[in-house]
Amino acid sequence: SEPETKSSKSKSKKKENACPASMFAAGGDKDKDKGKDKNKDKKKKTGKFFFLSHIQEERPPSPDIEFDSLEEFVLQPAQQGVTVKCKMTRDKRGMDKGLYPTYYLHLDNEKKVFLLAGRKRKKSTTSNYLISIDPTDLSRGGENFIGKLRSNMMGTKFTVFDNALHPDRALPDMSNARQELAAIIYETNVLGIKGPRRLTVIIPGMGKDSERVPIRPRSDNNGLLMKFQNRKMDNLIELHNKTPTWNDDTASHVLNFNGRVTQASIKNFQIIHSKDEAYIVMQFGRVADDAFTLDYSYPMCAVQAFAIALSSFDGKITCE
């Protein structure tokens, strides 16, 4: 992260309190080709490792957030104008000498309210993470199962599901079928020659009442990843990670996390909409060896943000 000037502080504050509902409203894909070649000819800075530089700052805590039902809260979009600030920790103890660590998400304030836990399934042909609202129960059949993250064979594309029924077991009208909450695509980047990681996030658009448009495909051929591939973006929102800037003094790529990130890491990122790069939909970054901050804003929910963060830990041979 980089220090802010007085002018940038006032601008960022206005942006944080802004109501960007129109950017995330469900509808057609009018801007699908806009900005496609925007960065095509930009000069790239390459090297063996890519880190986002940082400075030590005080980490602002999360605002007080209260809710009656944890299950409902983690699936609800953040309130407009509110940034939900969380802390994510990684516990390498237990399963297979740290090969299958458990990840926990808490609100980053004095109360440290638990939100979610996640762990990679051991017996699975592809990377498959279970997400639970109980830190002690991460079983697929448990009543606290809230969602899952599933990758393709290469570990470059991920889909996030809620806890409803598989389409094969759902009603004919699909009313009780599982929803796809997000798709995450990492651009192939062998040996890091293209620079820092690049990722695209596809999420459902928002309806008039600020409720997520349900995406319940009958098969993977009609899921978020395939819709994105075929550019069928009706009722979908396309997000990207913010491109870091190159700093010649530190010989590294830099992003401004406003004190929320204190250690350099290839996993540090910010998710934005192309229409307003100052509005941070989500940001994630390291603050200690096994501790990270995760902040998200409207229209993202805790499960979506947590799953995106989990995808960043998964091995990606063709993306580093």
Low-pLDDT windows of residues:
1-17, 31-44, 46-50
Radius of gyration from CA coordinates: 19 Å
Residue share in β-strands: 25-35%
Helical segment count = 4
* Quaternary structure annotation: single chain
**What coarse outline follows from CA principal-axis ratios?**
globular
Keywords:
320 residues; mainly beta; twelve-stranded antiparallel β-barrel; 4 helices; 11% helix; cytoplasm; actin filament binding
Summarize the structure.
By secondary structure, the chain is mainly beta. 11% of the residues lie in helices and 28% in strands. The protein has helices at residues 6-16, 70-75, 224-229, 302-313, and strands at residues 52-53, 84-91, 102-107, 114-120, 128-132, 145-151, 157-162, 180-186, 199-204, 236-241, 245-247, 252-254, 269-273, 276-288, 291-296.
Q: What does this 3D model show about the protein?
A:
By secondary structure, the chain is mainly beta. It is 11% helix and 28% strand. The chain has four helices and 15 strands. The chain has helices spanning 6-16, 70-75, 224-229, 302-313; strands spanning 52-53, 84-91, 102-107, 114-120, 128-132, 145-151, 157-162, 180-186, 199-204, 236-241, 245-247, 252-254, 269-273, 276-288, 291-296. The strands form two sheets. The protein has a twelve-stranded antiparallel barrel with strand order 2-3-4-5-6-7-8-9-10-13-14-15. A three-stranded mixed beta sheet has the order 1-12-11, with no helix packed on it. The protein is globular. 34% of the residues are buried. Residues 1-17, 31-44 and 46-50 have low confidence and may be disordered. Belongs to the TUB family. This is TUB like protein 1b.
